[in-house]
Amino acid sequence: MVRTGLILGLLAVVLAWPVPMILVRARWTARGPALALVLWQAIALSGGMCMIGALLAFGLAPAGDDLPAAAASLLGSVSGGADPGLTLGVLPVFALCAAVLLGGHLLLTLGLTWRRIGQRRRAHRDALRLLSHPADRDGRLKDGRWGDGAERDSTIVVDHPTPLAYCLPGGTKSVTVLSDGLLQALAPAELDAVLAHERAHLTQHHHLLLLAFAAWRSSLPWLPTSRLALGAVTDLVEMLADDDALHTVDRPTLVRAIAIVGGASAGPRTGSRASTGTGDADGPEPAAVTPVDPVVRVDGVEADAMATPRRVTPARVTRLLRPQAPLGALPRVAVGLVALLLVLAPAALLV
Questions:
Q1: Where is this region: Disordered (predicted)?
Q2: SS3 for 87?
Q3: Nearest in space to 166 (alpha carbons), one of 140, 194, 137
Q4: 82 and 93 in contact (C-beta within 8 Å)?
Q5: Residues in contact with 115: Cβ distance below 8 Å, sequence separation at least 6, in sequence order
Q6: Under DSSP, is residue 116 helix (H, G, I), strand (E, B) or coil?
Q7: What whole-number percentage of the chain has pLDDT above 90?
């Protein structure tokens, strides 16, 4: 068990620093953003399991050679009235307590992040209800080019001159928010591109994925890779939304829409968070639009990644201007196997 703990500890260190640093610099991720997201999730999950598993292995080492046998032995001793401190020793008991505390901390932070972001989104939605009007009031959205009546009903417009578009997740209450400036700045096809992009964020449930990484960053803010992972995953979901929008419009139209919306809202704005347009899935909004700041902070860390101001990254623009072939079958299988092994390895080592 001590050897298992050392292996898990070493794997946790590797997954916490060099592996994410390599992945965040990898160029293949732009060719397979969905597969890269799977790998990021595997790294995060496996890293947490390795940290907790290493502590469990060190704590249960005196009781047995593997996790099931050691746990059964310890439970038998405790049920018989034995003192765990005498059965295991002071340091193993400390390791077990640390494992329980770490696991509880991760789960509690995830729950708090979910709750607080949900509260802010509800407040944001209430403010938008007062400061917006249905998209059907604007003739440009009545011709049905981009979706059915239900999608038009979930699209609202705010009176603001800056080209602004974002989606506010909320299950059946999800809305896509546009500004008057956006409707005036974009041609019909470009508007279709923006709407398709935002609709992809909602239909693919990107907010749930980013919430998990935001909770990871909030729970372990001292870990540099938690910040890197959140930024990388946010860029990848933007690429996925772009790919979905390309099923509706052509590539030049999407690039023009991104350039217009991103360029118009990239400048700093006093008292507000500047939106980069497409992809700001929780709506960093100008102060004139809504008084609610949708960014939730847990222990001083921004917890809602979808509300973090986004910029149009060079990688995102480059893959649109100079598209590359998708990953081949062999690299896809290899990355998938690596992700699977990362998830299974901690449990296999302990058992």
A1: 265-291
A2: helix
A3: 194
A4: no
A5: none
A6: helix
A7: 58
Instruction: Report pLDDT digits (tens) over 244-281.
Output: 999 999 999 999 999 888 776 555 433 333 333 444 43
Distance CA 285, CA 303 (A): 17
CB 207 within 8 A of CB 224: no
CA distances from residue 234 to 34, 227, 313 in whole angstroms, order as listed: 12, 11, 11
How far apart CA 8 and CA 14 sit, in angstroms, is: 10
Question: Distance of CA 212 to CAs 36, 117, 218, 233, Å?
Answer: 16, 12, 10, 11
Taking the C-alpha atoms of residue 288 and residue 274, their distance in angstroms, rounded to an integer, is 12
H helix and E strand count, the chain: 14, 6
CA-based nearest residue to 120, from 298, 246, 1, 276:
298
Burial level of 140, CB count in 10 A (0-12/13-18/19+)? middle
Angle at the Cα of 77 from the Cα atoms of 73 and 82, rounded to 5 degrees? 155
pLDDT digits (tens, 9 = 90+) for 82-141: 777 777 889 999 999 999 999 999 999 999 999 999 999 999 999 988 988 887 665 556
pLDDT band at 80 (very low <50, low <70, confident <90, very high): confident
* CA–CA dist 30, 34 (Å, integer): 9
Containing H/E element for 230?
A: helix 224-245
pLDDT over threshold 80, residue 25:
yes
Determine how many CB atoms are found less than 10 A away from the CB of residue 323: 12
